[in-house]
Amino acid sequence: MNIESLKENIMHSKEIVREIYVFTNQLEIIKELEAESKAVIDSKEKKLLKEVIESLFVQLKILNKSVPDLIQNIGFFKKFPSDKKEQIKPKTNLVQIKYKPAKTEPKVSLTINEADRKIFLENLSKSNLSIYQLKKKFSSEKPIEVNFGRANSYAKISNKIFRGLSNKLAEKNYLVKLNKNLRKMNSPFIVTSYASMILFTVAVTAIFSLLFLFLLMFYNVSFAFPFLSPVEESFLLRFSKVFWIIFALPLSAGLLMYFYPFSEGKNLGSKINQELPFIAIHMSAISMSGIEPLNIFRIILKNKEYKNTNIEFKKLMNLINFQGYNLVSALKKIAVSSPSSKLRDLFNGMATAITSGGDLHGYLSEHAKRLLFDYRLEREKYTKTSETFMDIYISIVIAAPMILLILFVIMGSTGMSWLGLDTNIIGFLIILIIALLNAGFLIFLNLKQPTL
Prior knowledge:
mainly alpha; two-stranded antiparallel ribbon; 452 residues
């Protein structure tokens, strides 16, 4: 027994303390979730965690108990006993225990009292078994799906051709606004790759527009038979009529791709705004218990109903867990790229409340009331709009066609005609117009309808 034995005991004690800290934190999180939901989250996991913590505490006590004997055995000489009491003092026997925690980990060599050997091995076996069951439980659960996606072939081709030009545009800060819109819509593409895709789309569309222009220069395209018929106009006159195609098609394709991230980000922001009042109420109720602000987001993420806002919360947790941001800095960073102005205000307000030491529960409670009031106003506005369009729908789509049909029946019975069209054709056109108007109203109401 030498100083190396004492060193290994101390190192292993530090590892046991670290494991106790990890498992104790996990147990506290479960208790907080149970207190919030008023129900048992996972009794089996809770029992296993308690067993692990108790076994680790017993092992730590036994290792600490062996330290004085190890220190006594270290030295260049041994003291003679000074009195009779020390002479009759029973000698403590130290034994060495070697075991391998896992296949990939090195062997551990510990020195403990022989009297504690049996208890130490029992608790070591119990803790290893509980830890193994915990690992098995978590590995058997369905992992969180993170869809990174495969390399996009279209993006790869675009980058090969236009990467240099896109990098130059980015260096001159021409793509700042586009980058903000891409981040708001949570696009998987970086700004230079997306700019390359826009340029490649414009180039491909320009080639097709030239081919289409060539076709229109020599042929009339009609939907009647035959499909193509030769052009009888002069070349210059025909070119003056159709030359705009080579500019209109590529420009339209480029603008459509450029403004798509803005439109998608705005759509995502409106969906978050619909979820936010209920999230704020939920956060306010959780903060009433006095738990740490970071655990509020962990609890919210367990709720699958807030699928749009949870994307922003996951980004927040990634900044904290993987990039080392503190909660206040992460809140401010996510607020900048958030597609929802209301979520941006909520994050900035929470950051201010945490920094200034204010009442976070009071802030969340008042903010939830304002969000819920805005939500009710928006619902009332939608209801009024729906009533207005219902009146328009009844007037245009129901009453007007009925009156027209009565007029056409009278015209048909008297032999009158309208614009030289037969009554059967007029009836078919009215039915077609009614169908198109119904489809248009349905699309409009679906676009205006709130998501919740």
